[in-house]
Amino acid sequence: MATLGVNIDHVATLRQQRGTKYPDPIDAAILVQMAGADQITVHLREDRRHIQDRDVKLLRKIIQIPLNLEIGNTVEMIEIALSIKPDMVTLVPEKREERTTEGGLNLENTFELLKKSVDILQANNIPVSLFVEPSNSDMLLTKKINAKMVELHTGKYSELSGVEADKEFERIYQATLYAQNLGLIVHSGHGLNYKNAQRIAKIPGMRDLNIGHSIISYAVLVGLEKAVKEMKILIS
């Protein structure tokens, strides 16, 4: 059964829009935890457009469920991760001009840099996941980089419909099986919502779904506890 990781970045986005102290993502994380989420995910971006350093430090101290810290592969971010020691780190691509992460890491072009960071983090008992495209080649490169986990980019699947969505789902399905054969733990995320997440959750061996925007958007209408509980039931 797939578990649920809730990304609370967009709570911080709302706070940063007005430069206020609310809504506080720490409060959101506590509510998410009480609603039955299995993990909290936050992306500490280089430009600090939503989650701030203070948020990550407090989350590490307060929440009782695992903390997944998404970061770009930079010296600054690796040092922050080593200082905070989250339960896991997910390395993601990052561009200043993007609204959100637009695709998986280019593993071939950044192989040596990624391997160096993965080795450092995992030597300090912080398991690493790489955010990648659902392809066998990326699964194999992830294994060679020595990351313990992989998060499959489901953005394309989430944007498609009909036959095209079926084709992309099959890519995700096959990549999941191949990754498991290589000994990798498989997560997935990006664009998943209340209409398309269940299909991904049913893939054999899919460990965790990281979902943020759809849950926070629904929570605006029905409340955070209800939004998390409904997603948890859906993927279970």
Description of the molecule:
The protein is α/β, with parallel strands linked by helices and 236 residues long. The protein has a single domain, classed as TIM Barrel. Helix content is 49%, strand content 17%. The chain is built from eleven helices and eight strands. Strands 1-2-3-4-5-6-7-8 form an eight-stranded parallel barrel, surrounded by eight helices. Strand 3 (67-71), helix 4 and strand 4 (88-91) form a beta-alpha-beta unit. The protein is globular and about 45 Å long. The mean pLDDT is 96. It catalyses: 3-amino-2-oxopropyl phosphate + 1-deoxy-D-xylulose 5-phosphate = pyridoxine 5'-phosphate + phosphate + 2 H2O + H(+). Keywords: Cytoplasm, Pyridoxine biosynthesis, Transferase. 3-amino-2-oxopropyl phosphate binds at residues 7, 18, 191, 212-213. One of its GO terms (molecular function) is pyridoxine 5'-phosphate synthase activity.
What features would you highlight for this structure?
eight-stranded parallel beta barrel; alpha/beta; TIM Barrel; globular; single chain; 236 residues; 49% helix
Summarize the structure.
By secondary structure, the protein is an alpha/beta fold. It has eleven helices and eight strands.
